[in-house]
User: Which sequence fits this backbone?
């Protein structure tokens, strides 16, 4: 994997310690629904933040607030130092956005799509051709440059969608579920691209509900539930804090699992249901008598970010 | 994925001051329309030229055979100039309605454009200007057909594309406003039947509005297409002086009002 992209942060007025995104007490209602409800979030410049949360947690609304396509009811929002919504246009000029839903112009070629957005993002005329060529190369679509989008495969379209967000070399890239609905191969390819961006100094905010994606790519994870951040930190630290080192999965009849669950909870350990099993988190601190009792039916594994996610955002599907 | 290393400057200068209604944003959206147009210009041009030509020939020769003159003009000349307004409306209000609705609801094109440094007002302005340009060009098609069938060409006719563009801007913005109000594409049927069809039938295109009973003649002044028809006839047969200034003024007011309405309504729709 070569670095696909340059580090623009170095030449800007941003201090190294200044946050690329800073949200304080942000709320947004739609009718009676509180989509975002007192959101605080900091994304330090040059890092990748994974915004993790179940459907309806407020991830997409948060993304829309950052481009002022949704206007907050209250709270302070800054993107690359610009106040939103007043200075959102300045901020948008320096951001790239990949939406969850493909909105490429399907009747145009890959090259035309990129050229249109190079212009919309104010790439100066004499640099446009080069910018488009580099974005095509980044998306590995140079050979398909003059193919209409509706004749490209799903993976190619997603690469083009991401390249479109990068054609003006933004300092901040907002990605809403960048790999949803893609083959594992295509997903890994996009992961390389995103991690390449980050190594090049671009700030990335990525919403996802794929936990593995956040674990691999994000320096910091913010777990959202019901419109606010319920946990924030490096993935490993979050796992250590909320799920400990190891998890024990206990298999057995439902009534026995219910009994074990109650006793483990009484001992102060977090648990979660994983299909037919009961997962005991922070199992390294499990009292020895309980540990000995469950041992015959137990499967040991390392605690994961998924454990944190489910523990914090609830097991029930809203 | 990989690519060659690039220089370390962002392509968009960070210090640029961004204001309201910037030419660069309008030009960007306009050029998108132009690029998309390269994909469908053949079919659009076909229908924009053939449709008014059929009206012209059917009415001109069919109805024209029964009439000697209308307002002192050969009927073919009368309708050949009047139908310019019909062509203008068809090539601006309809794409304004359907195109905007499809881009907003189905293709989500506007979500992508508004994530760039483009505001709703710039988006609306650029698209209305684009449709105005198209309407100005396509509006002259019936005039050229009429000239081919014997209408006398006059130098003043060079203003016809401008009249068409001004009228087209207003109707494009009206269409975009309606697309911002409509909840589904079927809603357009109400507008087409109750608003657009009466406007184009009672604009002085097919018969002079002074043949209408009572206050209908005065009501015609509220019809933007009537002003368009009158201006095209002035350019084709000689100016009627200060009245034409009134017609231009009416079209300017129509364009300004629909432009504001479309910007306001689509902003409400696109930014929540």
Assistant:
């Amino acid at each position: 994997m070569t670095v696909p992209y340059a580090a623009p942060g170095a030449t800007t007025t941003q201090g190294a310690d200044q946050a690329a995104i800073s949200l304080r007490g942000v709320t947004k209602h739609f009718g009676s629904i509180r989509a975002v409800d007192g959101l605080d979030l900091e994304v330090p410049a040059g890092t990748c933040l994974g915004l993790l949360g179940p459907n309806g947690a407020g991830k997409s609304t948060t993304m829309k607030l950052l481009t002022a396509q949704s206007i907050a009811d209250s709270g302070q929002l800054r993107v690359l130092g610009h106040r939103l919504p007043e200075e959102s246009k300045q901020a948008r000029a320096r951001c790239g956005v990949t939406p969850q839903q493909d909105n490429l112009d399907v009747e145009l070629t890959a090259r035309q799509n990129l050229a249109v957005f190079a212009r919309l993002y104010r790439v100066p005329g004499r640099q446009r051709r080069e910018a488009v060529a580099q974005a095509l190369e980044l998306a590995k679509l140079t050979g398909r440059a003059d193919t209409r989008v509706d004749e490209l495969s799903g993976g190619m379209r997603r690469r083009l969608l991401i390249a479109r967000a990068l054609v003006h070399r933004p300092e901040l890239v907002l990605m809403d579920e960048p790999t949803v609905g893609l083959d594992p191969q295509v997903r890994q390819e996009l992961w390389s691209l995103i991690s390449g961006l980050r190594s090049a100094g671009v700030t990335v905010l990525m919403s996802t509900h794929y936990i593995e994606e956040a674990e691999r790519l994000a320096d910091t994870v913010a777990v959202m539930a019901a419109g606010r951040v319920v946990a924030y930190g490096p993935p490993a630290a979050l796992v250590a804090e909320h799920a400990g080192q190891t998890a024990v999965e206990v298999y057995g009849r439902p009534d026995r699992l219910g009994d074990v669950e109650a006793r483990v909870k009484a001992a102060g350990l977090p648990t979660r249901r994983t299909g037919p099993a009961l997962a005991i988190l922070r199992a390294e601190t499990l009292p020895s008598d309980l540990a000995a009792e469950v041992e015959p039916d137990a499967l040991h594994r390392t605690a994961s970010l998924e454990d944190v996610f489910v523990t914090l955002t609830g097991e029930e599907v809203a | 994925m990989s690519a060659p290393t690039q220089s370390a400057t962002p392509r968009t200068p960070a210090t640029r001051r961004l204001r309201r209604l910037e030419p660069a944003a309008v030009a960007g959206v306009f050029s998108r329309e132009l690029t998309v147009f390269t994909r469908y210009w053949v079919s659009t041009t076909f229908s924009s030229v053939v449709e008014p030509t059929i009206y012209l020939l059917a009415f001109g020769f069919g109805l024209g055979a029964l009439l000697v003159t209308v307002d002192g003009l050969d009927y073919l000349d009368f309708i050949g100039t009047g139908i310019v307004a019909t062509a203008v409306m068809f090539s601006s209000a309809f794409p304004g309605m359907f195109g905007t609705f499809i881009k907003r609801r189905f293709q989500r094109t506007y979500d992508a454009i508004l994530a760039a440094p483009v505001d709703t007002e710039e988006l609306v302005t650029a698209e209305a200007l684009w449709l105005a340009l198209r309407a100005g060009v396509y509006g002259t098609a019936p005039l050229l057909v009429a000239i081919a069938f014997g209408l006398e060409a006059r130098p003043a006719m060079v203003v016809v594309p401008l009249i068409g563009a001004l009228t087209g801007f207003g109707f494009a913005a009206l269409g975009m406003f309606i697309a911002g109000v409509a909840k589904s594409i079927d809603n357009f049927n109400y507008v087409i039947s109750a608003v657009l069809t009466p406007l184009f039938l009672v604009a002085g295109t097919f018969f002079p509005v002074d043949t209408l009973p009572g206050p209908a003649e005065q009501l015609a002044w509220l019809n933007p297409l009537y002003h368009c028809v009158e201006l095209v006839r002035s350019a084709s047969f000689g100016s009627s002086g200060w009245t034409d200034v009134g017609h231009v003024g009416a079209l300017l007011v129509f364009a300004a009002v629909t432009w504001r309405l479309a910007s306001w309504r689509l902003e409400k729709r696109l930014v929540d």
